[in-house]
Amino acid sequence: MKFPSRSSLLCLASISFIAAHALGDDSPHHSIPAAKILAPSAHNPRNSEGDFIQLKGGRLLFIYTHHYGGKGEDEAPAYLASRLSKDGGATWSGSSEQVVANEGKKNIMSVSLLRLASGDIALIYLRKHSKYDCVPVLRLSTDEARTWSPPIDIVPEKERGYYIVNNDRVVQLPSGRIIVPCAQHVDNTPEKSSPYAEAVCYLSDDNGLHWRRGRGMARVSRAIKTGLQEPGVVELSDGRLLMFCRTDAGAQFFAYSSDQGETWTQPAAGTLQSPLAPASIKRIPGTKDLLAIWNNNDTHAYRRTPLTSAISHDDAQTWTNVKNLEDDPRGIYCYTAIEFTGDQVLLAYCAGRDTVRNGLSTTKLATLPLNWFTRQAP
Q1: Spatial CA neighbour of 38 closest among 7, 72, 87, 70
Q2: Range of the structural domain that residue 61 is part of
Q3: What's the pLDDT at 159?
Q4: Which pTM does this prediction carry?
Q5: Is residue 107 part of a domain?
Q6: What span, in angstroms and rounded, lies between the C-alpha atoms of 96 and 82?
Q7: Domain count, the chain
Q8: Within 10 Å of residue 161's Cβ, how many Cβ atoms?
Q9: pLDDT digits (tens, 9 = 90+) for 102-130
Q10: What is the CATH number of the domain that holds 332?
């Protein structure tokens, strides 16, 4: 297959998308009110990449990556910690509780939480030993996150390598299948690390007890130096799955599966222009509408601002209601978790500024009315 040029990819990504107004450096910038800011400290240089779970009885639990060493870099020591809300996310507990101790040679990080059809809660995270050994693992809770099972390997020993699974990425389909979308960095060795990744899904049909690799991988030309990084999956209204991946080609790339994540169509530039940064897309419960939150620019590089939301009524073919949540031109906003609670939307995302050495050191927890996203922008 002949792959289009980078300029062609940008055109494809922009055909059906109208960008939100871009602010200049001298413009006053907007920031949504945050109920809680998990800021770094001397002995906690970074709080990042987490997810929500709604507990029985109405409480909300947020589990995230709590760095306790280094300078907060991706390989710095970290464990999983939690905060609790008893009022729907309006306020959160003032101190963190350790959930899982660091069991990696580097760290554990990047949390996904999922209420399974069985009623159990699944906790999925990355166990990182090195730049060539990083894999997702799963723990289960049968008592509303009070205790957790021993870790279950999602990637078997013979397939070990460097896999990235973003926070808030794991889904369970109506059939019961659990899907963990992974970016496998295929050229990583003990001597070097490579940005080029291919996307593959690991699948479980028994509530997370056993896992296997999907039959097909999604891959693109080496002309796209990043390959397909940090994939996510959302079910469309016709039952197909949409996979979206970050690239350095100025757009999120889309691929589709008609067999519950086993195989994927050839990825191509989708309808969200994007820098080298992740997107989050979820279906609004009880509707056919999708909510996307991502960085709305096509600079190809690490410019992770503004943080923008949009709604699609046609399975990600077009987008409306385009609104900026954060638009500081020097800001960094990424790794968003989305949770729907009645008529509210809970967001958690990493935040910082490009003037700070580690711009991902802070996590913001915020709550907005659902109709803020769904009503038409002026």
Answers
A1: 72
A2: 6-25+36-374
A3: 96
A4: 0.92
A5: yes
A6: 5
A7: 1
A8: 16
A9: 999 999 999 999 999 999 999 999 999 99
A10: 2.120.10.10
